[in-house]
Amino acid sequence: MNCSLEQAKETTTLFISGPMTIEDAANLKTSLVDALTSSLLIEVDLSAADAIDLSCLQVLCSAHRAAVQAGKKLSVRSQADALITCLEDAGFPRHSGCLQKEGEPCLWQEVILP
Amino acid sequence: MDMAQMHSEAFKEEAYELLTDLETTLLELEEHPGDAELIGCAFRAMHTIKGSGAMFGFTDISELTHEVETVFDQVRNGTACVSKNLIDKTLKAGDLIRSMLSNDGSLDETERQNLIATFRSMAVSCQVVPAQSRAEVVTTATKINAEDEKLYRIRFKPSPDIFLTGTDPLILLRELRELGTCRIIAHLTDIPPFDVMDPERCYTYWDIILSTAKGINGIRDVFIFVEDDCELSIDVIDDSGSAIDKPTYKKLGEILVERGDLTAEDMANVLKNKKRFGEILVESGLAAPSKVEAALVEQQEIREAQQKRQSAETAATIRVPSEKLDMLVNLVGELVTVQARLSQTAALRSDQHLAHIAEEVERLTSELRDSTLDIRMMPIGSTFSKFRRLVRDLSQQLGKEVEILTEGANTELDKTVIERLNDPLVHIIRNSIDHGIESPETRLAAGKPRQGTVQLTAEHSGDSVLITIKDDGAGLDKGAIRAKAIEKKLISDSVDLSERELFALIFAPGFSTAQKITGISGRGVGMDVVKQSIESLRGIIDITSQKGKGTTISIKLPLTLAIIESLMVKIGEDFYVIPLSLVEECVELTRGDIERAHGRNLANVRGTMIPYIPLRQKFQLGETNIAIQQVVVTEVAGERIGLLVDSVVGEHQTVIKSLGKMYRDVQGVSGATILGDGSVALILDVPQLVQWG
Fold first, then answer.
1. Across chain B, what does the average pLDDT equal?
2. CA B396 – CA B402 distance, rounded (Å)
């Protein structure tokens, strides 16, 4: 897995490429911590990522919650079919966000229903 | 030990267990070749060994098991049938895997390749279905089709460490999808806050609604590698076909969104505005807020209680290395000794407070002792099932037909006793089959059924366990035993012996009646070794036989080796203990009695003369002038023999300590114990004392 952070105006984008497996989960968390501290709007670009596994999905979900609680916005960008299949296989996407907060839908909504 | 090594140790342990189960299953399968459940069991055992073997780098093993599994899969699907050859080869494969495990996966490569080739050819040849079983295949196939799909609710909660075992739960979920229509809902509530979450632990669990015709076993097969490591519950919630596909099952909103008539956002907005049932009740004034809250709490409580029960069930058994148990027993032994000292000190001090505490400690210690010893108890069944294999192999080798019947497999004995009982039992069973049971022709000529029987029974009797090995073979030949004993100079030819004494000669060192030495028994290690091993377990072995009818060997064993009930006696200033199980009664012996016996060591017990061993002389403790001594009457090998002591102190809980290497060869003493005041009392080995004379 390769991570790179890009800062543009208020938005920090985290570009991820390559496989995202248990070996990368710790790295992913560190990168997300950096991204979360740097700005209010965080975008995770998974377009170049492949083979995401459960451990990384968990990290992303947890980061999303932390963002919502801190009043920030974290979103995921990807059009990859592989990610959609993986999310559906894992049963992750929800209609409403897991924090039950107004205007905060599930992180994966945008990926599933663009 | 690093993580990988720990896992491979765990795998080995699991594999050994699976192989033992597999062996039992195969032997049962040989008797009931059509039993689908047994076939499933064998398949699953192989499947698990293959999977976890590959996971922990035992590729040789997983390669072999893969071939075996393939054949069993065909059997399971009805395209092949169970044959004697298959059972034989699978047992062989099991043996090979066992030896591969003990050699870290490197062993006889040619044998492994041969077996792989055999199973491959079996798998190929099985594809040509014999005409006879074709009909069966068709029926099973239609059965599956005819069987309605059922709807299952599956709750799958993997252990947090599941990633460390190399398993990705998503792969399991994908496998589930292949079984039928499937809805998977992940629960993410357990994921901790971002700053404290460990990215390498699994916090997610799932509710899965699955509609499949594969049955509950098909679903379990998916979770086979992780079953021990996760909470898994599978319930049938609807068996009237695939309800998922019915349009009524979907919620209105879902259908509308799917058809594009409603956007998900709109639906989310509507849903957000929708009030919960409880809120509606409260607003309409039909129920007080507190009532609703209470009802919600009740609902939640019940759910939690159910969850708790579930987790309690999964944690019902734990695996503990046996060394830890041994250590626990040792510590409890020490504690019992210290407690005895405490009680004695308390009694001397006449201090109410101390006496109170001492009593409490005594009560707790005895409970602790009982439950600790209870942990070490294991059913003897595991040993019994090993013998089925032994009997099968032996009878094949000798061209005899022998059936083994077991009874009382649930009888519990101390772990150590069971382990040390294995070799003597193997020897006795070998003897029964080799020398006892006749060939089928001889049996038919004698008017007996072709097939001989060896019956293994275990039962509790008092504080000991009685194990009997009974065969319906030729029985012991008294003439042959006598002739042999004379030839070996064990007895002189003029001696007249009772039947019992004659049979007892079999246990004499260097005695073997078999005319020729076979590969099975009669290799020099005779029944004397068996007797020694049983006696080292504080057990008693006995033999009865009827010519032409069969032989019965009975073994009486104490329940445990660590702590025994005993009778404490005193000679001079020293204390000795005698195992209570051997003691019959105590009688007085006055100086007058001794004079009347005219120098012979005989005591008159209600008219019966009983010989006794004067321990004072035996242990060279000098003479005494006590007016009344005591004879402790014991029963050893059916004979009543007394032990002459100065006085009898009373019953005693004896924690057995071994005497150590230095005193290994001391006769008449089997161990020692530490008394309340810290002094040592010797444990008398009565059978040896009697033999010694």
1. 79
2. 9
Nearest to B160 by CA among B196, B204, B201: B201
* Cβ neighbours of B197 in A, within 8 Å: 29, 58-59, 62
CATH 1.10.630.10 for the B378-558 domain, yes or no: no
Nearest chain A CA: its distance from B69 CA (Å): 28
Within 13 A of B134's CA, how many CA atoms are on the CB side?
Answer: 6
- The answer to whether the beta carbons of residues B544 and B552 sit under 8 Å apart is yes
CA–CA dist B61, B68 (Å, integer):
11
Q: Which chain B residue shows the shortest CA-CA distance from A52? A: B170
pLDDT of residue B96: 86
Contact between B78 and B137 (Cβ < 8 Å): yes
**Of B183, B194, B264, which has the smallest distance from its Cβ to A66's Cβ?**
B194
Measured in whole angstroms, how far is the alpha carbon of residue B603 from the centre of its chain?
A: 46
Q: What is the CATH number of the domain that holds A46?
A: 3.30.750.24
Residue A54 parent element (H or E) = helix A54-69
Q: How many CB pairs under 8 A join A and B?
A: 86
Nearest C-alpha of chain B: how many angstroms from A17?
A: 19
> Considering only CB atoms, which chain A residues are within 8 Å of B188?
58, 61, 92, 98
Q: Is residue B3 classed exposed, middle or buried when 0-12, 13-18 and 19+ CB atoms within 10 A define those classes?
A: exposed
B335-373: pLDDT as tens digits = 888 888 888 888 888 888 888 998 999 899 889 988 888
Instruction: Please report the ipTM that was assigned to this predicted complex.
Output: 0.89
pLDDT tens-digit readout, B57-105: 777 888 888 888 888 888 877 777 788 888 888 888 888 888 888 875 4
Q: Could you give the angle at the alpha carbon of B508 between the alpha carbons of B507 and B509, nearest 5°?
A: 115
Report how far residue B301's alpha carbon sits from residue B607's, in angstroms, rounded to the nearest whole number.
74
Q: What is the pLDDT, as a whole number, of residue B517?
A: 46
Distance CA A50, CA A64 (A): 20
**Interstrand relation of B377-379 and B412-414 (parallel, antiparallel or unpaired):** antiparallel
Is the pLDDT confidence value at B563 over 60? yes
Cross-chain Cβ contact B204/A113 below 8 Å: no
- Three-state SS for B473-489 is CCCCCHHHHHHHHHHCC
With an 8 Å Cβ cutoff, is B270 touching chain A?
no
Q: Does B199 touch chain A (CB under 8 A)?
A: yes
Whole-number Å distance between alpha carbons of B303 and B311? 12
How is domain B147-241 classified at the CATH fold level?
Answer: Alpha-Beta Plaits (3.30.70)
DSSP secondary structure string, B507-571? GSTT----SS--SSS-SS--HHHHHHHHHHTT-EEEEEEETTTEEEEEEEEES-SSEEEEEEEEE
Domain B3-139 has CATH 3.40.50.880: no
Say what the pLDDT of residue B311 is: 65
Closest alpha carbon within chain B to A56: B199
> Is residue B508 a contact partner of residue B578, using CB atoms and an 8 Å limit?
no
Query: Whole-angstrom Cα distance, residue B669 to residue B680?
Result: 13
Instruction: Write the CB contacts of B573 (distance below 8 Å, at least 6 apart in sequence).
Output: none
Residue A43 contacts residue B175 (beta carbons within 8 Å): no
Domain count, chain A: 1
Contacts (Cβ under 8 Å, ≥6 apart) of B363: none
The domain made up of B322-376 has a fold known as Helix Hairpins (1.10.287)
